[in-house]
């Protein structure tokens, strides 16, 4: 791998080992883009100031902080920022954006992420001034419409899940997990059982589950999976005891399978005085079909950005409301909305909780949650209706099974014999030629114009390839993806050596991933200034 002077950016791939066919390095409209520091000169600026013997007010008169003049605060060293004209700046970031992959460009097959299309109606509603321009510190009487959205969405979430209450403030899935676990912790302490310190987590659960339990002060113990990819119910029951606080289970699980023994598991957990937390990241597969409350779930977060649209990435946007059983609802966090008989809405916070909510464990966030996500999710729900939401889950499951059955003879599908999958299809690297692995298949998909699937997760499957098509992909789009993945997989099985250096047609060639992960260079240094400093 060749590294340029910036310290991290590899050179553009050279086809066939020959020199670039163009002077610029551009290939048609695939533009070669330098770093912004390499485009702009740090010693120039796009703004000129008129010369003046005393350009700063108060210079020499003792005016300014601590009696000093503002003139003493004038810059005496290079600022170290690139000076670009406005067109240069706009073009730089526009060209970078064209090198990014998004749901508006193509199919996003990431498993366990539910990267579905975000209807533009949702964006239109979220940008209405009454939602987009409000401030969290406005008087409650001035934001009745926004509180109405939060309240109505909360009602829908409890109805769709069959749960008793909901905490709307958590900002994402993992944040919601922490909320649910803190509710469980508060409930145990309230009944004098704070000694329960063990949380059981099946192997097929999401990776954030054990991290959340550990963060909350619990000891995590694994529960194995059966050969068919589901929780080993016998092993789980054998481990239950007076030291167990909860079981954190993902359903449908990360193998893409529904936990058929969920009700029996919940009954066994409750029998020993523990609680059941369900990771609801995969709720998109069962919304309108299964109510988690009917399965004995005590707490479950819902990723609004997964089940109810708005693909996520880059740290946001996200929202993770937590639905709670009647046993845990009194311990939920503040704030929450309340609707009075006259239709007036209020936020119940520390000052107003009083005797009505004495067991709350406290506050999760500074304010009330993600208003934009609430608006998008409610718009999505109301535009689909109850019957439409049911069809969403049915179509998502249908699409996943179409991919599974279309590729099971090309790629190893370890749980294909366990019955239909749910929202995602799981494959392994078993059967690829010696020296070839999942990453080679993924890099080959980039050359075909697709973002790679989720790789090496779940850990229970070696070389896992996890694909979630969602309900928003057409059969034509899925057929194109299936043809591309089948072609790449067959090349990997045949030992096509060109896959080892893929991608060849992307803006960047394959990095040394170990070096990039262990010794990343994330700060640009001006070589002139660096040399001067030496």
Automatic annotation (TrEMBL):
PANTHER family: GLYCINE DEHYDROGENASE (DECARBOXYLATING), MITOCHONDRIAL, GLYCINE DEHYDROGENASE, DECARBOXYLATING
Catalyzed chemical reaction(s): N(6)-[(R)-lipoyl]-L-lysyl-[glycine-cleavage complex H protein] + glycine + H(+) = N(6)-[(R)-S(8)-aminomethyldihydrolipoyl]-L-lysyl-[glycine-cleavage complex H protein] + CO2
A Pfam family hit: Aminotran_5
Protein role: The glycine cleavage system catalyzes the degradation of glycine. The P protein binds the alpha-amino group of glycine through its pyridoxal phosphate cofactor; CO(2) is released and the remaining methylamine moiety is then transferred to the lipoamide cofactor of the H protein.
EC number of the protein: 1.4.4.2
Lineage of source species: Bacteria, Pseudomonadati, Pseudomonadota, Alphaproteobacteria, Sphingomonadales
Domain Aminotransferase class V: from-to ranges: 196-313
Record protein name field: glycine dehydrogenase (aminomethyl-transferring)
């Amino acid at each position: 791998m060749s590294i340029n002077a910036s310290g991290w950016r590899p050179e553009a791939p050279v086809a066939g080992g020959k020199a670039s066919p163009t002077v610029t390095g551009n290939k048609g409209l695939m533009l070669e883009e330098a770093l912004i520091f390499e485009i702009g000169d740090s010693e120039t600026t796009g703004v000129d100031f008129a010369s003046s013997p005393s350009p700063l007010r108060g210079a020499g008169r003792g005016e300014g902080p601590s009696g000093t003049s503002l003139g003493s605060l004038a810059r005496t060293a290079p600022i170290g920022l690139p000076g670009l004209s406005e067109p240069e700046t706009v073009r730089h970031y526009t060209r970078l954006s064209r090198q990014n992959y998004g749901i508006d460009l193509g199919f996003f097959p990431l498993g366990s992420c539910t990267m579905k299309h975000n209807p533009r109606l949702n964006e239109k509603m979220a940008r209405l001034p009454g939602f987009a321009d409000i401030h969290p510190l406005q008087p409650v009487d001035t934001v009745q419409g926004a509180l109405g959205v939060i309240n109505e969405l909360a009602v829908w979430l409890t109805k769709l899940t069959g749960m008793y209450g909901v905490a709307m403030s958590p900002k994402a899935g993992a944040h919601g997990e922490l909320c649910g676990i803190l509710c469980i912790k508060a409930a145990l302490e309230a009944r004098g059982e704070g000694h329960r310190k063990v949380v059981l987590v099946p192997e097929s659960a999401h990776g954030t589950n054990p991290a959340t339990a550990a963060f909350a002060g619990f000891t995590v113990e694994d529960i194995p999976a059966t050969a068919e990819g589901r929780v080993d119910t016998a092993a789980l029951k054998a481990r239950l005891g007076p030291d167990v606080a909860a079981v954190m289970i993902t359903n449908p699980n990360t193998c893409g399978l529904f936990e058929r023994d969920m009700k029996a598991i919940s009954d066994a957990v409750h029998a020993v005085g523990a609680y059941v937390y369900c990771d609801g990241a995969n709720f998109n597969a069962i919304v309108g079909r299964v109510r988690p409350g009917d399965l004995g779930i005590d707490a479950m977060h819902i990723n609004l950005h997964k089940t109810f649209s708005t693909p996520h990435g880059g740290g946001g946007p996200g929202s993770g409301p937590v639905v709670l059983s009647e046993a845990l609802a009194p311990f939920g966090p503040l704030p929450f909305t309340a609707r009075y008989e006259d239709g007036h809405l209020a936020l119940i916070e520390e000052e107003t909780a009083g005797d009505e909510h004495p067991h709350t464990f406290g506050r999760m966030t500074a304010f009330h949650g993600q208003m934009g996500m609430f608006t998008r999710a409610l718009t999505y729900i109301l535009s689909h209706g109850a019957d439409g939401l049911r069809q969403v889950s049915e179509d998502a499951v249908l699409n996943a099974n179409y991919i599974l059955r279309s590729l099971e003879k090309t790629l190893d599908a370890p749980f294909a014999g366990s019955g239909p999958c749910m929202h995602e299809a799981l494959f392994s690297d078993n059967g690829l030629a010696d020296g070839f692995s999942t990453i080679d298949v993924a890099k080959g998909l980039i050359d075909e114009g697709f973002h790679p699937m989720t790789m090496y997760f779940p850990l229970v499957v070696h070389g896992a390839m996890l694909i979630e098509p969602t309900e928003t992909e057409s059969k034509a789009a899925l057929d194109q993806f299936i043809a591309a993945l089948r072609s790449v997989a067959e090349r990997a099985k045949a030992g096509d050596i060109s896959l080892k250096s893929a991608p060849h047609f992307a803006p960047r060639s394959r990095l040394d991933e170990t070096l990039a992960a262990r010794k990343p260079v994330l700060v640009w240094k001006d070589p002139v200034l660096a040399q001067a400093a030496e």
